[in-house]
């Protein structure tokens, strides 16, 4: 799994992770008719500090205009270019269980430059089942052909844990170079393949930790 602090084009990974937040905020600002915005406005809309907003945008060469701020349309186009939103990316979704079906039905992918072109599953009894309009479950046996024929470069894994590494190996061998992994397992991939891990249970555990810390002082006060 790749873990460099900067991307190949020189942007820090932390900056890349925040650029979609800025793009979403700018899209909303433009929809309301705003022509300019300040770093403070972007900070408020994204939950990122103003200092980080200015630093992140400076990596793109955008420094804004003193007393005016940033041109919303220009900055929106600049960020879209930086994170590959000026073209559509074909995505294959592997795993058509409850999570996979929910992801396939999520409308936010298409509006942000990614299009799910296939949903595959290993269960032969589910083949041909409609997931959403225009997408039916296809066989995992055809994964290599699907990746090749539909020019897929990104995959979403929503498989059981035990199957994730094998599926990842097949995807990489077929030519997929980016994987969004929802299976709770750390994938082993070669250099040049990017993996983003989404572990919802782990995120809930982190929140549970913070909830426990919030309640501890009260409990100690009562016990004392």
UniProtKB/TrEMBL annotation:
SUPFAM superfamilies (alphabetical): NAD(P)-binding Rossmann-fold domains, Winged helix' DNA-binding domain
Keywords: Cytoplasm, DNA-binding, NAD, Repressor, Transcription, Transcription regulation
Protein's UniProt keywords contain Transferase: no
Cellular component GO terms held in the UniProt record: cytoplasm
UniProt keyword annotation of DNA-binding present: yes
Residues at which NAD(+) binds: 95-100
Boundaries of every CoA-binding domain copy: 84-186
Matches recorded under Pfam families: CoA_binding, Put_DNA-bind_N
Residue ranges for the DNA-binding region feature of this UniProt entry: 21-60
SMART domains per UniProt: CoA_binding
Main function: Modulates transcription in response to changes in cellular NADH/NAD(+) redox state.
Family: Belongs to the transcriptional regulatory Rex family.
Subunit structure of this chain's protein: Homodimer.
Protein name: Redox-sensing transcriptional repressor Rex
Designated gene of the protein: rex
